[in-house]
Specification:
Elements: H1 2-33, H2 55-75, H3 80-101, H4 103-106, H5 114-151
Helix pairs in contact: 1-2, 1-3, 2-5, 3-5
Length: 152
């Protein structure tokens, strides 16, 4: 039961993080992200504020996801990967809801493919953050065992 409760907390954390990140993009899109579009898009092409609609927004999204997964994994004592999966699922649900709320993205030819593309773009930062925190915790445990054995 404890694992499920922690999983629900991680899921909600993913939802909230994705919503906050999207609100950041909406608030700062025209000044920080819209001028720097993907190569091949004209400067007159107006893109919607979204996680992956410019190289800068994708970089910010990946960095925030990696740091959040790292911090969430550090807070977890057991079932780290289980919580990372729930965290990522919350992000994906928020992504689909945000995408469906945007008429321009909903009517896009790539709308059916977008969740799969976004999954490919967001899984690596979550895995890297979780793996880095797991490695750090493993190093702390090894050092504690070493120091304990050395003092005995």
């Amino acid at each position: 039961m404890l694992y499920l409760r922690n999983g629900i907390v991680a899921f909600v954390a993913g939802l909230v993080l994705a919503a906050m990140l999207h609100m950041h993009f909406v608030a700062t899109w025209s000044s920080s992200y819209a001028p720097y579009q993907w190569p091949g898009y004209s400067k007159s092409h107006h893109s919607e504020p979204f996680f992956s609609n410019s190289p800068r927004s994708l970089t910010v999204t990946r960095a925030v996801l990696a740091v959040a997964a790292f911090l969430g994994t550090l807070a977890a004592t057991k079932s780290r990967w289980f919580l990372a999966i729930f965290f990522w699922a919350g992000i994906m649900v928020a992504f689909i809801v945000i995408m469906q709320m945007s008429a321009k993205m909903r009517e896009s030819n790539l709308a059916a493919l977008a969740p799969f593309l976004f999954a490919v773009l967001t899984v690596p930062p979550v895995v890297v953050g979780c793996a880095a925190a797991s490695l750090l915790q493993w190093g702390w445990q090894r050092r504690a065992h070493y120091l304990k054995a050395k003092s005995d």
